[in-house]
Amino acid sequence: MKKRKYIVIGYGWRTDFYIRAAQQLPELFEVTARVVRTPERAKTLEKATTDLEAAVRTAPDFAVLCVPRQAAGPYLERLASLEIPVLCETPPAEDISGLNRLWRLADEKKMKIQVAEQYFFWPLYEAVARIIRDGVIGEAQMAMLSAVHGYHAMNLFRRLLGIGFENCRIHGESFPTSFVKTEDRGGFDYAGRMIRTQREVATLAFDNGKTAIYDFMGEQYNSVIRTRRLNIQGTRGEINDFTVRFLNERNEGAEGMIRRVDRGVLGNSGWYHLGMQFQDRFVYKNPLAPVRQNDDELAVAQCLIGMGEYLDSGKAFSSLRDALQDTYLSFVTEQAVAQGITIRTEDQDWV
To answer: What is the CA radius of gyration of the chain?
Structure first.
């Protein structure tokens, strides 16, 4: 696999994943420069500068853009003028009109751009997608997801249900709830403090007859008592988290488990994720084993690999067009949830 060089634009928790990828896989990735906003911050970081043009002179294959939405537009325009391909962390727009402006800019400038939508590369979701593709549960018709928010959830819905750019009817509501805080990015909280949040629930009824049910609260990402849930219903079975119920070739009811296989558990060898098994076969094998990475680090590395393959072949792994559709659906869902109303989506410029 060809080694890829890139610059990272931005600073923060998510940006660090792209830095770690190069540290964990130095034979595959190299960060040639980092671009940050202030000279003070640049002095504290390796290979950092405030000068985008100086970073580009390090001859990267592409740039990873990982900045707040309101700051992304100017960077995209400059990168387009410099003819630097972009792996963009988020479709950088704050509203629907901004999404359409971004599409017109990318189209006009013929930008080489992909979006780092990593959740589909998580081992569990890759395994679920493989089981669906293999026809184990028949045609997937309905999905319920309580795991990730916004455009991340919309991307998983569209990929797992085979949704293209069909319009849909979205109804949303929000409900107050409370529970004990357990953990956040800073670590575990043992104080037993009660927190209040909102639980967002929405249904998306697509014109092709398929349905998605979105159920999420912000604290869910880190909570150990509000876990992630997934249910995919097909014409011949369903996937419920790690359990698969289906009809066999004789139309008899059968059941199997998706089993996670990690090396180094109850042993003295180094830990790493090997893959996901269903029945007697692997439905996902970690292409980066035996590197020690958590699921999100593995998925981000897959985005970087996908970006390199896109530059070589032109084959998109996460196109701007798809990412704009995901984000558009998330914006409409947010509006429906906030107002407790039903909204019908409409074709946008990229459709």
So the answer is: 21
Q: How far apart are CA 61 and CA 34, in angstroms?
A: 14
Beta strands in 135-182 (DSSP E): 140-146, 168-180
pLDDT of residue 125: 98
Total residues found in the chain within this entry: 351
Q: What is the pLDDT of residue 222?
A: 85
166: closest CA among 206, 209, 213? 206
Task: Extract the residue ranges of the chain whose pLDDT is less than 50.
Answer: none
**SS3 for 162?**
coil
Sign of CA dihedral 133, 136, 140, 145: negative
Return the pLDDT at 88.
95
The pairing of beta strand 243-247 with beta strand 253-263: antiparallel
Homologous superfamily (CATH) for 4-115:
NAD(P)-binding Rossmann-like Domain (3.40.50.720)
